[in-house]
Amino acid sequence: MRRVTGIGGVFFKAKDPKALADWYRVHLGLKLEGWGGVAFRWAEDNTNGAGTTAWNLFKGDTSYFAPSTASFMINYRVEDLHALLAALRAEGCKVEDKVDESEYGKFGWVIDPEGNKVELWQPPSGQ
């Protein structure tokens, strides 16, 4: 079973997400989408479809990264979320019980040994 197949997104907290996003747009040339982040498009691991790496800023008081107190969270693309979560549990990893499934794909979370919350994302079919 393949595990991580790429970076699905990079997320971190900011005191003023709009101002910081604007700085990245102005100074580094990131092209912000209407939803406030950047979608880096690629298709390397899915030659018959499309791939995306998301970049987005969250408000400093977000609880989305909890229980981690880190100011960032990495989202990794995976091939089979449920199989990987089961394997991680069997290996003794701290895996959150919650799994979100939507038109954006399947999302699950594991906490690394230093307490960082890691998001695992199985993109929708064809992406």
UniProtKB/TrEMBL annotation:
InterPro entries: Anthracycline_SecMetBiosynth, Glyas_Bleomycin-R_OHBP_Dase, Glyoxalase_6, VOC_core. Signal peptide: none annotated. Coiled coil: none annotated. PROSITE patterns: VOC. Gene3D superfamilies: 2,3-Dihydroxybiphenyl 1,2-Dioxygenase, domain 1. Residues 6-123 form the VOC domain. It comes from the Bacteria. CDD domains: VOC. This is VOC family protein.
